[in-house]
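Pipeline run #58 for the internal structure catalog. This entry was flagged by the ingest filter as a single-chain record with no existing model, so it goes straight to prediction. Upstream metadata was stripped on purpose; only the residue string is passed forward. Reviewer on rotation: M.T. Logging verbosity set to normal.
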Amino acid sequence: MLSGAVNIAVGVAELRNQGFGSGHGQASAPSGLGARHARLTVNAAVTWCELILDTMADPSAPWRTSGPVAGPAVPGTRTPAP
């Protein structure tokens, strides 16, 4: 299921890169996409955000029980006590 959500996000990004988005400065409005494509994009974004927020709120999420993640220290921050 997660790979399906990721594929939708990648597909939306590809549509934008192919000239259907407004971020590349087209002189004219693109055609070929309809309201159904917009609904799919919005609903996929909502689903993804709900998944992330639910995961963040889940006390039994795997990343909560795996222990601290080792990484470079960031100046000005403290590492929580174990």
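catalog note: Residues 35-57 form the longest helix (23 residues).
catalog note: The chain has a mean pLDDT of 74.
status: ready for reviewer M.T.
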